[in-house]
């Protein structure tokens, strides 16, 4: 007899505004307790000193976390000029100082060099694993941390102003794997000084915007029913850039069994989706064919994620909602 999972079968996303001083893992645990959810996870770590959007997946939404991890992110942050730190943020110990304070014109001009695909070396204090051990654990123990540069993408970068010569506020839109702490460190070096991140806030992760985020205190203050109505977003929220396919009850049953179903253009929900999958996965050269991703919905309920190949929808991930 299978053991019953602890907690409730809660499924959906919570756009949490993570407070400063809390790890992402701690934030997930708090939200999971609030909802008494059977399982939970997050879509992209935020450092303890950072605040802002931390999308938290509950229940079957955890199956869609990879789709959020690949999406663009927006950060607002403040660089503290003249002081380098071990962690590249305010948490670490000072390792170097400089009297140089870059001008706004120099900041704006140099910032353009970081837009596009760039090579970036992650901070020594990061969650990257080295031989199975986290880099920050090795660094804290005084060990040698040698991380290889990685290719990341920065789509937009803007200088927002300075409260005083020691600080500069910036906003960046970037792709997966970008470290804002590394950007601040490298920008300071290009400007002939040193620096670290003094404040960091994430304002967008894929479809999740700052305006829709809720704090832990607000979430805890709401009653159980209000939390569901106001704060729990549908699992398919993160699939907004993937075509949606409407299926019948019989087709949904087949998909839940892992079996494929035949689809037609008129089954797609919305004009954009119909235009995006006109050929339903058909290719002039079958050997060059790449399946189209889509998800199936039955009466507003997510059934499966899958691939459209030669006019058939093949489920790759089934949802029990």
Number of helices: 9
The CATH superfamily of the largest domain is known as Pseudouridine synthase
Mean pLDDT: 88
SS elements, strand count: 19
- Based on CA inertia axes, which overall geometry fits? elongated
Please name the CATH architecture of the largest domain: 2-Layer Sandwich
Q: Can you tell me the residue ranges where pLDDT is under 50 for at least 5 consecutive residues?
A: 271-288
Level-1 CATH class name of the largest domain = Alpha Beta
Q: How much helical structure, as a percent, in the residues?
A: 10-25%
Number of domains: 3
In the CATH hierarchy, the third-tier topology of the largest domain is known as: Pseudouridine synthase
Strand content: 25-35%
Distance between the termini: 22 Å
Supply the helix-strand structural class: alpha+beta
Largest sheet: 10 strands, mixed
Order of helices and strands: EHEEHEEEHEEEHEEHEEEHHEHEHEEE
Please state the CA-atom Rg, rounded to the nearest Å. Answer: 23 Å
């Amino acid at each position: 007899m299978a053991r019953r999972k602890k907690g409730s079968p809660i499924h959906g996303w919570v756009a949490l505004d993570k407070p400063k001083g809390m790890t992402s893992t701690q934030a997930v645990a708090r939200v999971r307790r609030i909802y008494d959810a059977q399982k939970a996870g997050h879509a992209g770590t935020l450092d303890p000193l950072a605040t802002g959007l931390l999308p938290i997946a509950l229940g079957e939404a955890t199956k869609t976390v990879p789709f959020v991890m690949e999406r663009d992110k927006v950060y607002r942050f403040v660089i503290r000029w003249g002081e380098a730190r071990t962690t590249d943020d305010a948490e670490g110990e000072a390792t170097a100082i400089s009297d140089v304070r870059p001008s706004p014109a120099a900041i704006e001009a140099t910032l353009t060099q970081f837009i596009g695909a760039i090579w970036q070396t992650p901070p020594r204090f990061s969650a990257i694993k080295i031989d199975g051990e986290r880099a920050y654990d090795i660094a804290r123990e005084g060990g040698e941390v040698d991380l290889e540069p990685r290719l990341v993408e920065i789509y937009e970068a803007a200088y927002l102003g300075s409260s005083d010569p020691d600080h500069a506020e910036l906003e960046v839109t970037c792709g997966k794997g970008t470290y804002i702490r590394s950007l601040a460190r490298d920008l300071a070096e290009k400007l002939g000084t040193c620096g670290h991140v003094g404040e960091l806030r994430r304002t967008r992760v894929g479809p999740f915007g700052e305006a829709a985020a809720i704090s832990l205190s607000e979430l805890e203050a709401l009653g159980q029913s209000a939390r569901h109505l106001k704060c729990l977003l549908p699992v398919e929220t993160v699939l907004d850039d993937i075509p949606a396919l409407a299926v019948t009850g019989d087709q949904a049953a087949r998909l839940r069994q892992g079996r494929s179903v035949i689809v037609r253009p008129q089954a797609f929900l919305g004009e954009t989706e119909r235009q995006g999958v006109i050929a339903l996965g058909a290719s002039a050269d079958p050997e060059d064919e790449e399946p189209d991703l889509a998800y199936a919905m039955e009466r507003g309920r997510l059934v499966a994620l899958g691939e459209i190949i030669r006019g058939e929808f093949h489920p790759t991930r089934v949802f029990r909602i």
